[in-house]
Amino acid sequence: MTDEYNRSGPHRSEVRRVGQVKEVTSRSNPIIKDIKNLTDKKHREETSTFMAEGLKLVIDALELGWSIRTLVYAKAAKSKPLVEQVAAKTVAHGGLVLEVSEKVLSSVTRRDNPQMVVGIFEQRWKRLDDLKPSKDETFVALDRVRDPGNLGTIIRTADAAGASGVILVGDCTDPFSLETVRATMGSVFAMPVVKCSPDDFLAWQKRSGVSVVATHLAGAVDYRTVDYARKPVVILMGNEQSGLPDNLARAADRTVRIPQQGRADSLNLAVATAVMLFEARRHLLTLDEKK
């Protein structure tokens, strides 16, 4: 963020200190403008930060050790015990706490009925070599995924299925966009995310010992007949419109198809990935009998 985050306040009419909290009343306040700029990918990359909307997401992130830069909450929420606890944790970690009006919060989230709490966090990326695949681990690799909703849903699904990470291959949408983070429902904080080039992915595939199972229109194998238990598995999914390019499809250990019967000629990427993930991990998933 800019140095506005370290100032006691650019204009007295816009910012007022209340203990460790800054009260902001203007949508044109420089701090608020800086936060609103996080809707732009370039600004997120320059600052290595992103926005998460909702008290649950903020609590999840803090519990998982993510670094919070700024907490923004609506004035109406300040007396809620959980909000007070999150504000105290933010201050303890050196972050800034802003108390704002609902109109200011709406301008930040670009929603008419915003969540009452927003957190600004430092981005966290893994490298391919940070991934050390072992037996019974499953990863999802996505080639040029472009839709934020699809990516967010896939990250959430990977978390639910017990996958060990999501690998973004090539020019993918930003997992830290506000739309994607919303769609993950907090799973972006629990799921390791890697971004890499196709060449780097192929080189990692060779040295890591994983079995890559790719969905492809030319796949002749039913996805349910593959043995997913022998090696760590990477489920490789193609772009929403064009599918997998030939170089990635040829490098896969197996290319499979999901049988379909109705008039639809394809599945949504997030749905197809969910089908593949839960089949790949079916031998590992059991119901908790205590529930």
**DSSP summary, beta strand count:** 13
Low-pLDDT ranges: 1-19
Radius of gyration equals 22 Å
For the largest sheet, list the strands in their spatial order: 9-8-7-12-10-13-11
Domain count, please report it. 2
Distance between the termini: 44 Å
Oligomerization: single chain
Tally of DSSP helical segments: 10
Element-level helix/strand string: EEHHEHEHEHEEHEHEHEEEHEH
Mean pLDDT: 90
| Level-1 CATH class name of the largest domain | Alpha Beta
The shape, in one word, is elongated
Query: Strand count, sense and closure of the main sheet?
Result: 7 strands, parallel
- Give the CATH superfamily of the largest domain: SPOUT methyltransferase, trefoil knot domain
Q: Can you tell me the CATH architecture of the largest domain? A: 3-Layer(aba) Sandwich
How much helicity do the residues have? 25-40%
Please state roughly what percent of the residues sit in beta strands, choosing from under 5%, 5-15%, 15-25%, 25-35%, 35-45% or over 45%: 15-25%
CATH topology of the largest domain: Alpha/beta knot
Q: What structural class do the secondary elements suggest?
A: alpha/beta
